[in-house]
C-alpha cells in the first residue's frame, strides 16, 4: 500500500513553480482576449464613417476612423525603427502633418524595407500642398519594455530613426507640440507605402491560446509527477 507523503521542503519547490506556470498560462489567455478585442475594434472602425481629427482628439489603444486636412511637413520625417513585414526588417515612415484646425499630428504612411547598406533608406516625400486624408487614429505604439535612456535632444537632420517615442519625446525631437497619437494612413490613400494595419495578423489570438494550453499542461504534468514521486510504500 502506498501513501502520499511529500517532504515539507518539496512544497517549497512545487508551489512557486506551479504559480509561475499557471500565471504564464493566465497571461496568455489575457493577451488572447486583448487581441480579440483589438481585432474587433479594427474591423468596426473600418466600417464606420470617419470623424474629423483635431489635435485634441483623444487617442486610445482602440482605433477610431478619422479624416484630416492639412499640410505635410516632409522636412521633419521620422523612421520608426524595428518594424518588420513578412519577416523583413524595416521602418514605418512617420510624416508630421500640420492640421488646418491647428496643431500637428503624426501620420504613419506605412512600412519600408531597411537598406542593405545599413544606412537610412531614401524616403519619398508626399507632394506639396494641402491634403485631405483618411485613416485610423490610435495611441502611439509602445515597446514591450521601455528602458530609461539618454535625454532626448531636438533633431537637426531628417529623416531620423527613432524607437517608440512618447508624445513628449516627439515634442522635443521636432521642436513643436505634437498630439499624443498616430494616424495610420488608409491603404487607399495616395502618398503611402506598405500599409497593413491589422495588429494581430502576425500573432493571432489562437497562438496565445495555444501557448496557454502548453503552460497549463506543464502545470498539470508537474502536479501528477509530484504525486507519483511522493507516494511512499507503508
Structural class: alpha/beta
Average pLDDT, all residues? 89
Tell me the distance between the termini: 6 Å
**How many domains would you count in the coordinates?**
2
Shape: elongated
- CA gyration radius, whole angstroms: 24 Å
Poorly predicted runs of 5 or more residues: none
Strand order of the largest sheet: 3-5-6-9-7
- Could you give the count of β-strands? 10
H-E string: EHEEEEEEEHEHE
Share of β-strand residues: 25-35%
For the sheet with most strands, the description reads: 5 strands, mixed, barrel
Level of helix content? 25-40%
The number of helical elements comes to 3
Can you describe this structure in just a few lines?
30% of the residues lie in helices and 27% in strands. The protein has 234 residues and is of the alpha/beta class.
Structure explained in plain terms:
With about 230 residues, this protein is an alpha/beta fold. It folds into 2 domains: about 5-35 and about 205-234; about 50-200. The protein has 3 helices and 10 strands. Strands 3-5-6-9-7 form a 5-stranded mixed beta barrel. A two-stranded antiparallel ribbon has the order 1-10. A hairpin with a 2-residue loop joins strand 4 (about 80-85) and strand 5. Helix 1 (about 10-45) packs antiparallel against helix 3. The protein is elongated, with a radius of gyration of 24 Å. The termini are close together. The model has no long low-confidence stretch (mean pLDDT about 90).
